[in-house]
Amino acid sequence: MSKVKYYYDSETLSYKKIERKKRRTFKFVTLFLVAAALFGFLFVFIGGHYFESPKEKALKRELTNLELQFDLLNKKMEEAETVLANIEDRDNAIYRLYFEANPIPEEQRKAGFGGVNRYKKLDGYDNSELIISSSKRIDKLLKRIVVQSKSLDEIAVLAEEKEKLLRAIPAIQPVSNEDLTRMASGYGMRSDPFTKLRKMHWGMDFTSPRGTPVYASGDGIVERADSNSAGYGNHIRIDHGYGYVSLYAHLFKYNVQKNQRVKRGDLIGFVGSTGRSEAPHLHYEIFKDGERINPINFYYGSLTPEEFNKLLERASLENQSLD
Ligand SMILES: [Zn+2]
Asked: Across-strand partners of 199?
């Protein structure tokens, strides 16, 4: 039971309850608080709508800055794309062409990413489009760089192969022949020094005194160094790989052994007149895939055009070979 308070009314000379007045005060205070809360709420709600807080202002500035940076990044990507396109063009038109590799098709270089939407998590924001388009651009750029890098790897291998091939091809004269007078007889129909009959001469003869150094005309491995082939006497065969073999006949002495690895210009033996030979000379042949071909076409590396023409003229004379 609640306490009931009274006050003494001197006019009526009796006690009266004081409860009522307090109730009214309480009501008034409650009303005031509710009104204040409502007003406060309205103030924050409407004010917040029309006026920015310092924090919001800072965030907005940051957002504007981000968009600006995105634009700058896109410009830089454009530059990178231009540079890469230039490299790709050169790759297809020069490097791959030079090393006889097929150009990489445009679609393969610039292919996007199919299947699942890998940009889904970037969806649903005001700036989603900007972020997604930039992400796509970077992803494509990265893929193109990977394709280009692989292409260069392939070319590096091809270049190394080509260099090996160029070192292997028998491309110099097998004896020192500075004034070109040593070349005595070329490849083609010649008169046989012994029978005097016209017959095929399968190589080139270089007249040189006995003991003149003979050089390997390309990198390779000594396949034979013996006198077991009729007519050639002491002879050396070098396997250069890629189907090329060079042969050096009528030697006086060897300077290499079978299975020895040699480099172009290495001293492999000395001129002699062993086998079917009329006088000291080097008989030199080149095989390609088992066929004997004209060695005159292989001196391009070491001769000037004038020298080559002179040698060609001499080699074409249908004279008597030394065999
Ligand atoms: Zn000969």
From this structure: 190
